[in-house]
Amino acid sequence: MKTFAAAFLSLSLLTALPSVASAAVSDNTRSKATTTRKVKSVVLRKTAVAVPAVATFGQVAGLHDVDDPLALKSSVAYVLDQNTNEVLFSKNPQAVLPIASITKLMTALVVVEAGLPLDEKISVTDDDIDTEKFTHSRLSVGTTLTRGDMLHLALMSSENRAAHALGRNYPGGLDAFVAAMNAKALSLGMADTHYVEPTGLSSRNQSSAADLAKLVNVTSQVPLLRDLSTSREARVALGKRMVQFRSTNGLLSSPLWDIGLQKTGFINEAGKCLVMQARMAGRQLIMVFLDSSGKASRIADAERMRKWLATLPGETATVSTKL
C-alpha cells in the first residue's frame, strides 16, 4: 500500500510539474521587468489516496450475500431462547469466523473456574504488549492491579493487556492457559471453536454462532462475569492517577434493554461482533452477531432484532437463512 501511495503521489507531482515550471518562468520574466513585484511561491500539496478497507473473512466467504428478513448488516446472527433452547433466528450459524474480543469471555471463564485469588496483584510486562495488531493500551508496562481488576477491565473495556496478563499469570503460563481454553471449549461441545491466545487479537481465534451461544449460556450463569461484563464504567488507580474506563457496549445505557451478560469484539478480519444474554418479552435470550459491517452496525442489528422479537407471538416460528 505504501508503494502504491508513493507511486500515486509521484504521478501527481509529474502531472503538476509543467504548470509549476510555467509559473516559475512567468514569475522570473515579470521579476526582470520590475523589481517591485514579489515572486509567487508554488506549493505542492499531497494528493489524498483512498485506502481500501480490509475484507473480513465473512466477506471473502460471501456470507454477506445471504439475505435475511431483517436486512442485518451482520453476516452471522443467532438468537436462542435460553430456557427452551428454541432457535428464534438463524443466519449462517455454523460459519466459522474470527471472533475478536469475544474471546475474552472464555478467558474470564477459565480464570474464574481455576479459582485463582482475585485479590492477588499481577503486573503488566513487555510480554503483554500487542505485537499482533499494535493496539494502544492505557495499562503501561509496570502497571500492577489485582486479578479482579484485570478481569473487570478485560470484560468491560476489552483491555487486551489485561486479558493477556491474566493468561500469562495462569499456573503453567500462557501455553497452559490457552490449552485450558481449548479444553473448556471442547467440554462445552464447541466443536467449531479454537483459541491461540487470550485477547482475540489473532484472527486464528475462531468460532461459530452456535458455539458462542453455548459459551454465553455458561458464562451468563456466573454472577461475577455477569456483573463485570455489564458494568458501565469504573475508576481504576493507575499509579498515582485515577483513570476512568467505560464499557464498549452502548446498549448497557439504554432503558429498552435488560442485559445480563455481554461482550463486544472487533478486528479487521472479524468485523464488528457482539454477544449478549438479555431478558426480553418474558424470555431469557442469547444473541450472537458476527462480522457486522459499519461502525455502529452491530448495535443497529441488535435493535432491529429487539423490535422484531417484540412482534412475535408466544409460539414462534424459526427464521433461518444460511449459505
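the 2nd protein, sequnce then structure:
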Amino acid sequence: MIFRKATAGHNSSHPPKIPNSRQIVNLLKTGISLGLSRVSREPLILGSPIMLMVEPTTACQLKCPHCPTGRGELNRPEGRMKFEQFKFLWDSIQPTPLLLQLWNQGEPLLNPELAKIVNYAASQNCWVTLSSNVELLADRHKADSLVQSGLYELILSLDGASKETYSQYRVGGDFERVWIGIQNVVQSRKLNRSKYPIITWQYLLFKHTLAEVEKAKRLAKEWGVDKIVFKTAQLEDLSKSEGQRWLPDQSELRRYDLKKDRWQLRRSSNYFCKRIFSSAVIQWDGTVVPCCFDKTGEFIVGDAAVVGFPVVWSGKEFQAFRRNWLRGIRPEICSNCTEGLKNLYVNPRFVEI
C-alpha cells in the first residue's frame, strides 16, 4: 500500500460486518481442513467456503492484450449471471461466506443486475468486493446504485495516469470516462454520508506505466481515492518477446524470471494452495471451477446451477482435483497462479524506478 486517505469523520450507512458465530466456526473448520489435508495428503473438507468468487459476466468492452477475453481466447460462451440464478446459488451456501468477489473474466458492470446481486449478498453478513475498469460508472445512476448497494470495496483497474499511457494496455478504453466514473462514486458517497465502498486504485506495473507512478499517487489524492496499490503484472503469453515488451527491466517490479526463453513465475517451491480448500469460482452459467486461474473453464468440477453448490463443493470431481494437487499432479493453470508469490504487490518508494 502506497497511500491511504483517512476517512475518519464520515458516517457510514454500510458499516463493516462482524462475523457471526456460524461463520467463525466455519473459519475454524476451514483451518483444520487445511492443516489435516496438508499433512495427510488426502483432501478433507469440514466446512463451506469462506470466500467465493462469482463471475457476473464474460463480456467486456476493452481488449486488454494479456486478458483471455481481450485476446479473444476465452473459448467459452459469453453470458451473464441473472439475479435469480445468483440467489439460488447463494442461498444454498450455509453459513454465508465471509467474502464475495464479483469478478473473473469480463467487466462486471455490464451485468445490469449487479447492484441487486451486491445488495443481496451484503445484506447477509458478507463483505462484497468488485473489480472493474470503472468506465460504466460515468453513468451517475449506475454509480449511485452501486454506492447504495452495500458494496464494501471497489477496485479500480487503472494502469497509467494519463490518456496516452492508459490506452496502451486498456485497449479501447476512455480515460476521461474513468475519471468521471470515479468522481461519480466519490460524490455519491458524500451525498449518502458513507465512506463505502472503499475505493482502491490497482495500478499494474508495466514497463510503460512506471514513469507515471508519482503522478498516479498525486491523482489518487486529488480524486478522493482511498488507497492506491501497485501490483506486478501478469502475462497471458509467457514468451520471451512478450515479457520484454511489457515487463519492467527491474527484477523487483515483476513476478517472473526469464529462463530458457520463457518467463517463469518467481515463488516458493514448497507453497501450499489454500484456495482450493477455502474458496471456489462460480462462472456466470453456474458451473464451478477450482480457482480463477482456470479462465477457460477447463477443469469444471460440477454445475451448481443444477445440483446446488454444496454438492459440488464436497463432490468427487472437486475432491479429485484437490487430491491430485496434494500428490503433485498439477495442471498447467497452476504454473501462472499467484499462490506462494512473494512480490504480488510492490512499494515503489523502496525501489529505484
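The radius of gyration is 20 Å. The longest helix spans residues 21-40.
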